[in-house]
Write a structure and sequence with these properties.
Blueprint lengths: L4 E8 L2 E9 L3 E6 L5 E6 L4 E2 L20 E2 L5 E2 L3 E4 L2 E4 L8 E2 L12 E6 L2 E8 L10 E9 L3 E10 L3 E2 L3 E2 L16 E4 L1 E7 L5 E7 L13 H4 L7 E6 L10 E4 L4 E7 L3 E5 L23 E5 L14 E2 L5 E11 L1
Length: about 325
């Protein structure tokens, strides 16, 4: 494992902040044990960053934009931070007005995971979420395995639970395939979707499926963000992938102005597309980058947000007999 290492960054909140650094023939990646953060992902040949990140790992302890985290237990928003399962109502701890966002203040992005390097190109992170954490029923053993290939990175997520409980995780990188010095306005995004989730006035899915056709979220044809959204309204929308798609084919493709492409292959039914329109300007970015509005785009495969309150949506309930699984593969190349 000559090319893999774990680096320690001091004691924080009673835990040692650790970083695993891995590489393959074409990529390198850095992972933190806090929030299961992907801190850095880059092309080795050009030393080109592919995601936004902070230079100081300790900056992730206060990370309002959720850069690089694993969001959960339930990614996205849950209406009024509550749901009913069986005959029991569960009240969660809201962290966005009356809404629960990305698992709340006790979510997976706010805790220290166990981190181990398995090989020069593979690392594993584990976290035990006790019963009742954040208000959720059941305990959960959550595992994230990250593996680099020559031109791809794979995120494998699993959760074994002790009782029926909602589960829907999301990997929350902000992608900028040009390195992060300029905005993503000239990037092009294509998604294999025809609809998106309608929202109520609290930005929570309300059960409607709306057509992408004619709106500024219509990513079907692979146009640039500047062309699709000339008024810079921004997108923070959950697109619904076509049910009949080939699971081996990408659900989304992001293309930089110079032709570098990222293909997103996922087994999830939706993805949140967020163009960082509300991402605050933050100091301390990786060298040559700027963190702020329109500087990156999140492509977050996940389950239907707020599905735990909307029976017309596919279930997000994991059980001891039916554990949670997600596989995300990102492939990089030239077009």
């Amino acid at each position: 494992m000559k090319d893999a290492q774990i680096v320690e960054h001091g004691l924080h909140r009673g835990h040692t902040l650790k970083e695993a650094r891995l590489q393959s023939a074409g990529l390198s990646i850095s992972l933190l044990n806090f929030g299961a953060v992907t801190r850095d992902l880059r092309l080795l040949e050009e030393n080109r960053p592919l995601i936004l990140g902070f230079q100081d790992p300790a900056d992730y302890l206060l990370n309002p934009g959720y850069l690089g985290v694993i969001a959960g237990r339930v990614a996205g928003r849950i209406k009024n931070a509550r749901f009913t399962l069986g005959r029991q109502r569960f009240q969660l701890n809201p962290n966005e007005g009356d809404t629960l966002l990305h698992g709340g203040a006790n979510g997976l992005c706010h805790v220290f995971w166990n981190l181990e390097v398995l090989s020069e190109n593979t690392a594993r992170l584990r976290y035990h979420s006790p019963e009742g954490e954040g208000g959720f029923p059941g305990a959960a053993e959550i595992t994230l395995t990250v593996m680099l290939e020559a031109q791809a990175v794979v995120y494998d997520l699993t959760a074994e639970v002790t009782a029926p409980t909602p589960f829907s995780l999301a990997q929350h990188n902000y992608y900028n395939l040009m390195g992060g010095a300029q905005s993503i306005r000239e990037h092009r995004l294509q998604v294999d979707a025809t609809s998106y989730l309608g929202l109520d006035d609290a930005n929570v899915p309300d059960g409607r499926l709306l057509a992408l056709d004619g709106c500024h979220h219509d990513f079907r044809l692979g146009r640039s963000f500047a062309e699709l959204d000339p008024q810079t309204k921004g997108s923070d929308v959950a697109v619904v992938f076509d049910e009949c798609r080939d699971p081996e084919q990408p659900v989304a493709s992001l293309i930089a102005p110079d032709g570098l492409q990222m293909r997103v292959i996922s087994d999830q039914p939706c993805a949140q597309i967020y163009t960082a329109s509300a991402l605050p300007e933050q100091p301390g970015a990786l060298p040559g980058q700027r963190i702020g509005s329109d500087m990156g785009v999140c492509i977050e495969p996940q389950g239907y947000a707020n599905a735990v309150n909307l029976p017309q949506f596919p279930s997000m309930i994991a059980t001891p007999e039916r554990p949670y699984r997600q596989r995300l593969r990102l492939e990089f190349g030239r077009i």
